[in-house]
Amino acid sequence: MKAKKGILQTEHLVLKALSESDRAQMLRIFFNEDIKKTYMIPDFQTEDQASALFEKLLAFSRSVDHFVYGIYYGNTLIGFLNDCEINGVTIEVGYVI
Questions:
Q1: Planar angle of CA 69, 71, 74, nearest 5 degrees
Q2: Taking burial as the number of CB atoms within 10 A of a residue's CB, which of 40, 41, 46, 59 is the most buried?
Q3: Nearest to residue 10, comparing CAs of 67, 70, 68, 73?
Q4: pLDDT-based confidence at 25, cuts 50/70/90?
């Protein structure tokens, strides 16, 4: 049996599954030129292309087979964590803030 994903909380940040209401904030992250310099985000030409990646991350954030969490400061999505590679019990994690 696989465990359900939970919410991880620190004094200032919350890590939890993404929700549909995060779409607009995630698209701002995807199109941010400073973030694109340090994280391998595709150079999206349209909002539809970026939305397709958001849909994938949204599904993965609800799956126990992937490690994807939104990073929230208060109620604002400021980034995300995602698995880059899963090899047995080892996970390589990337992040965007």
A1: 135
A2: 41
A3: 73
A4: very high
Q: What is the mean pLDDT of residues 40-51?
A: 92
Three-class DSSP category at 10: coil
Q: Which residues, in sequence order, are bridge partners of residue 14?
A: 9, 72
- Residues 6 or more apart from 37 whose CB is under 8 A from it? none
> CA–CA separation, 56 vs 34, rounded Å?
23
Q: Where are the beta strands (DSSP E) in 1-97?
A: 8-9, 14-16, 68-73, 76-87, 90-96
CA 32 to chain centre: 15
Distances (CA, A) of 37 to 1, 3, 65, 91: 40, 35, 29, 24
User: Does the pLDDT value for residue 61 go beyond 80?
Assistant: yes
Task: For residue 96, give the nearest of 76, 70, 75, 64 by alpha carbon.
Answer: 70
